[in-house]
UniProtKB/TrEMBL annotation:
<dbReference type="Pfam" id="PF02779">
    <property type="entry name" value="Transket_pyr"/>
</dbReference>
<dbReference type="InterPro" id="IPR005475">
    <property type="entry name" value="Transketolase-like_Pyr-bd"/>
</dbReference>
<feature type="domain" description="Transketolase-like pyrimidine-binding">
    <location>
        <begin position="22"/>
        <end position="197"/>
    </location>
</feature>
<dbReference type="Pfam" id="PF02780">
    <property type="entry name" value="Transketolase_C"/>
</dbReference>
<protein>
    <recommendedName>
        <fullName>2-oxoisovalerate dehydrogenase subunit beta</fullName>
        <ecNumber>1.2.4.4</ecNumber>
    </recommendedName>
</protein>
<comment type="function">
    <text>The branched-chain alpha-keto dehydrogenase complex catalyzes the overall conversion of alpha-keto acids to acyl-CoA and CO(2). It contains multiple copies of three enzymatic components: branched-chain alpha-keto acid decarboxylase (E1), lipoamide acyltransferase (E2) and lipoamide dehydrogenase (E3).</text>
</comment>
<dbReference type="GO" id="GO:0007584">
    <property type="term" value="P:response to nutrient"/>
</dbReference>
<dbReference type="InterPro" id="IPR009014">
    <property type="entry name" value="Transketo_C/PFOR_II"/>
</dbReference>
<dbReference type="GO" id="GO:0009083">
    <property type="term" value="P:branched-chain amino acid catabolic process"/>
</dbReference>
<dbReference type="InterPro" id="IPR033248">
    <property type="entry name" value="Transketolase_C"/>
</dbReference>
<keyword id="KW-0560">Oxidoreductase</keyword>
<dbReference type="InterPro" id="IPR029061">
    <property type="entry name" value="THDP-binding"/>
</dbReference>
<keyword id="KW-0786">Thiamine pyrophosphate</keyword>
<dbReference type="GO" id="GO:0003863">
    <property type="term" value="F:branched-chain 2-oxo acid dehydrogenase activity"/>
</dbReference>
Length: 344
């Protein structure tokens, strides 16, 4: 295993009295810069991440700050990017690679599944693979085919991987720091629909957020709403709308899909008796099905109603006029909560 302590250095002090509010994409840049300052083994690589700062500008300014040896522009070849990332991680570096879009991940699967995810298992714990693959994820930006996919469930089925998805600037910063410091490979899905949707004050203090836990964003007593990524915003808005009807909805941001913090979900459902799962991936075999199955296996006697799923449809995301109809919206979430409450 890599000794991360030896290469870590004190971060430069933040001289601003009050940090400015930043977007999710700016929080990603801030986290990358912080870790590159304090840890010489961290480097960034991918298509156009250096000179151009990435297609979404997540790495803007990093090559100028840290040089081309630590911010590498690669060929337009996802297979090579993945193989190079695994090789760097196996030799003591902490590479943070970018898959320019979610639909470009598939040529990377061989290296991710057959090698990165198996290092610890293959070597009986003697070696790990401390890499992060950043993936702009999901729909809602009117992009063409292969640029709007919600493919997280493919990777939650792979032992040895962590699958993480932030839903706010603050969680993007804290979870990315934790992912880079994690000795095992992390798939870090970034919901591009909310890259610049709103801002938060995010101090550049190097404080990581814990992985492998769900975040309860709103307390409630009547129904549990479980979601992740870009759908957190709509789910919180649905909870607010339900509150206007006298319905108390608890909202849980899963944040780390694998390994799943099921205990937090189960504890909530034990109090509310009802659960609505919201995600934008297609319904069949989406990750919501895993949560629903766990509830059926372990929380059956707490449930007062069938588990509801509000999801994308079992088709590729449509272009362009129907895109937002495909994605779960506030009204669909509210309707599912009402159906759950109609039981009992």
């Amino acid at each position: 295993m890599n000794d991360t302590v030896a290469t870590r250095k004190p971060a430069a002090a933040n001289t601003a009295d009050t940090p400015a509010a930043i977007t999710l994409i700016e929080a990603i840049t801030q986290a990358l810069a912080h870790e590159m300052r304090v840890d010489d083994s961290v480097l960034v690589l991918g298509e156009d991440v250096g000179v151009n700062g990435g297609v979404f500008r997540a790495t803007a300014g990093l090559q100028q700050q840290f040089g081309p040896e630590r911010v590498l522009d690669t060929p337009l070849d996802e297979t090579t990017i993945a193989g190079l990332t695994v090789g760097l991680a196996s030799q003591g570096m902490k590479p943070v690679a970018e898959s320019q879009f979610d639909g470009f991940m598939y040529p990377m699967v061989d290296h991710i599944v057959c090698h990165a995810a198996r290092f610890r298992y293959r070597t009986r714990g003697r070696l790990t693979c401390p890499m992060v693959l950043r993936v702009p994820w999901g729909g809602g930006i009117r992009a063409p085919e292969h640029h709007s996919e919600a493919n997280e469930a493919i990777f939650t089925n792979v032992p040895g991987l962590r699958v993480v998805m932030p839903s706010s600037p603050a969680r993007a910063y804290g979870l990315l720091l934790a992912a880079i410091r994690e000795p095992d490979p992390v798939i870090f899905f970034e919901p591009k629909r909310i890259y610049r949707q709103y801002k938060e004050v995010v101090p550049d203090d190097g404080e990581a957020l814990p992985l492998d836990v769900c975040y309860v964003l709103r307390d409630g007593s009547d129904v549990t709403l479980v979601t992740w990524g870009a759908q957190v915003k709509e789910t919180l808005e649905a909870a607010e709308k339900l509150a206007g009807e006298g319905i108390s909805a608890e909202v849980i941001d899963v944040a780390t899909l694998r390994p799943l913090d099921f205990a937090t979900i189960a504890e909530s459902v034990s109090r509310t008796g009802r659960c609505v799962i919201v995600h934008e991936a297609p319904k069949t075999a989406g990750f919501g099905a895993e949560i629903a199955a766990r509830l059926a296996e372990e929380s059956m006697y707490d449930l007062l109603a069938p588990v509801e799923r509000v999801t994308g449809y079992d088709t590729h995301i449509p272009l362009f006029r129907l895109e937002m109809k495909y994605l779960p919206g506030v009204d669909r979430i509210v309707a599912a909560a009402r159906r759950a409450l109609a039981h009992g």
